[in-house]
Amino acid sequence: MKVSNKSLWTTVTIGSSVGLIASLIQTIERINSALNPKVALSCDLNSIFSCTNVFNAWQSRVFGFSNSLICMIFFATTAGLALAALTGSKLNLKLRYVFQFFSVFFLAFGAWYLWQSTFRIGYICIFCIFCYSAVIAMNWAWFRINYKDYKLSKNMKTKIQQFVDNGGDIFIAIIWAIVIAAMIIFKFW
Question: What is the pTM (predicted TM-score) of this model?
Answer without folding.
Answer: 0.90
